[in-house]
Amino acid sequence: MSEFLETAPVWLKDWVLGLLAGFGVPGWILDLVAAGMVVGTCIGIFLGLFALMSVMERKILARCQNRYGPNRVGPFGLFQPVADGIKMITKEDIVPAAADRVVHFLAPVVMMVPALLVLAILPYGRDLVPVQLDAGILYFFAVGAGTEVAVFMAGWSSNNKYSVIGAMRAIAQMISYEMPLVIAALTAAMVSGSLAPQAIVEAQGPAGFLPGWYVFTPWGFVAALIFYTCALAESNRCPFDLPEGESELVAGHLTEYSGFKYATFFMAEYIGMFAICGLFVTLFLGGWQAPLPALGFVPSWVWFFAKVCAVAGSMVWVRATLPRLRIDHMLGFAWKFLLPMGFVTFLAAACWHYAGRGPAGWLASLAIVGAAYVALSANFSRRFSLERRVYQFSE
Amino acid sequence: MIQNILNELAADPWGVAGKWFALAPAAVLLLAAAAAVVARNLVRAALALTLSFMALGVLFISLGAEFLGFVQLMVYVGAVAMLIVFAILLTRPDRLRRTATALRGAGPAAGVVIGLVTLGGLLGVISTSPLAAGTKCAPAATAPVARIGEVLMGSHVAALLAVGVLLTAALVGAAILAIEDK
User: Fold this and answer.
1) Which of A149, A165, A345, B127 is least enclosed, having the fewest CB within 10 Å?
2) How far apart are CA B3 and CA B26, in angstroms?
3) A134 and B50: CB-CB below 8 Å?
4) Has residue B106 been placed in a domain?
5) CA angle A104, A277, A138 (to 5 degrees)
């Protein structure tokens, strides 16, 4: 039974293709159908996750703030995304008179493309990788670069001061946090000796009866924390949501967007968040590997999506807990703390490898990472001494 | 002619589609580059240039140079294009206009000279290439990313280290400029 469930998606695809071939459908249509099934399934699953996430996020936030959240539409408010979708589609699409109409129209499209493209390389299960690429990790970051262009297009074409300031902040934030993000990802790639996501997952197989996930090594734990922080910043999530900070910038680059264009931005942001959670799970949480060999009877793709949902849920928790950062604090944190910490983690991972990946390497990398953390955080807290704020226009 | 194409299409539709599709990024690249030169609006020109960077990356990938294509996207779209955009948004438009009027006569001439020099250099490199005309490019499987890494870390490690030192020097220089600004 577990064998069957493990291979069920592949079996289903082969069954449909066999059925079509039985009707005498030519080979090139079969190729098209095979590709379409994979693409359609990926997009369908992530759109479903987006719908579920949009309602769960509101409900979890509501519970954290001691209220009920959406509970009117359907059982427990589960059909809320349908109502939201209808509202978004029927809203008026407003384009400012002074806007650059072509760029304004293209920005949400350009935003959506990288969010969907990066889904291609994630290993969803033991036999479920849509595209096997040797340089899958590189592909993820290369394609993700398109997001910055989209944000700039949205901000500039709106012809609105808030939009441009928001876009500039968003781009500064994305560029600053991309460096530690890539370095943290590279530690996992270096230790497993491959840039292919599937090989990185396979390198984290069970060690004895314990999981061999990289997050359970000292360097891997630090790299995972750096990656998680940067993932929050890259997907513009709280506490790094200041590019769209409502209280000061209205909504940043989204100010002049309404109706379905706004919904497209929203959707791209959430799908991008799921994609980066998927990469996080792949790099540090063992991808589709079961936590214990005894739990191997659960299909690998169930583990992958369970882990992705858990990480995405923790991001909601962070959003409910932490206040928004200030722009100079945020950039200083990336350049003066995360980046040097990333370099040191890289070094610690190399030491761990050359000390034989055993207890000696464990202690050595722990010492390196711990010393760096103490030194950097002492330096950091000395520069950002707390002082009494003076408010000029309030009170 | 049309009959030939139809016959070929019936025999191997994917091959024909691939052959024509491979030309699409090249066409986009040329059109976007032309738009970047012609566009009156600076930001639109920068966006067209970004599109040409993307098309070049896709062209590399469709030619089997996966690694080069990814690096092209990451460095040019992710960094260089954003640098250009920041430079445009952070310069004062009046000063920009003054420079533009001062360069009005010299601009096209300089463009033609630079273009001709670049073209000459490229033609020189191509004509002196040790590969004979009509050489088939190596299939992607024989030049995987791992092999590129081995070459970079093995026989070309001196060049890699030199580039690292150069970039670090540039970074330190940028930091010093930013500090003195205060």
Assistant:
1) B127
2) 26
3) no
4) no
5) 75
Q: What is the pLDDT of residues B126-159, one digit of tens each?
A: 888 777 666 665 555 555 777 888 888 888 899 9
In this structure, is residue A80 part of a structural domain?
no
Residue A231's alpha-carbon distances to A171, A196, A301, in angstroms, are 14, 20, 22
Residue A342 binned pLDDT confidence (cut-offs 50, 70, 90): very high
Chain A residue with minimum CA distance to B14: A28
SS3 at position A246: helix
Q: Within 10 A of A166 (CB to CB), how many other CB atoms are there? A: 27
Q: Three-state SS for A207?
A: strand
Q: Considering only CB atoms, which chain B residues are within 8 Å of A144?
A: 78
Chain B environment of A178 (Cβ under 8 Å): 78
Asked if residue A137 belongs to a domain, the reply is yes
Question: CB contact, 8 Å: B113 with chain A?
Answer: no
| First-residue to last-residue Cα distance in chain A | 67
pTM recorded for the entire structure: 0.86
Residue A48 located in a structural domain? no
On the question of pLDDT at A127 being above 90, the answer is no
In a domain, A125, yes or no: yes
> Within 13 Å, how many C-alpha atoms sit on residue A359's CB side?
0
Cα separation of A289 and A197, whole Å?
Answer: 13
Domain, as residue range, for B182: 141-182
- B131 lies in a domain? no
ipTM comes to 0.80
Cα torsion through A190, A196, A201, A204, rounded to 10: -30
Amino acid (one-letter) located at A260: F
Q: For the range A257-262, what are the long-range contacts, defined as Cβ-Cβ under 8 Å and sequence gap of 24 or more? A: A257/A108, A257/A154, A257/A158, A258/A91, A258/A92, A258/A93, A258/A94, A259/A88, A259/A89, A259/A91, A259/A92, A259/A93, A259/A94, A260/A88, A260/A89, A260/A91, A260/A93, A261/A93, A261/A105, A261/A108, A262/A88
Number of domains in chain B: 2
Instruction: List residues of chain A with CB under 8 Å from any CB of chain B.
Output: 28, 31, 100, 103, 133-135, 138-139, 141-146, 148-149, 152-153, 156, 164, 168, 171, 175, 178, 194-195
Residue A346 distance to chain B (closest CA, Å): 16
Picking from A145, A153, A168, the nearest residue to B89 by CB comes out as A168
Measured in angstroms, the CA of B84 and the nearest CA of chain A are apart by 11
pLDDT above 60 (res A344): yes
Nearest Cα neighbor of A331 from A207, A243, A218 is A243
- From B174's Cα to the closest Cα of chain A, the distance in A is 14
Q: Searching chain B, which residue's CA lies closest to the CA of residue A151?
A: B82
Q: Which domain CATH number covers B84?
A: 1.20.120.1200
Minimum Cα–Cα distance from A176: chain B residue: B79
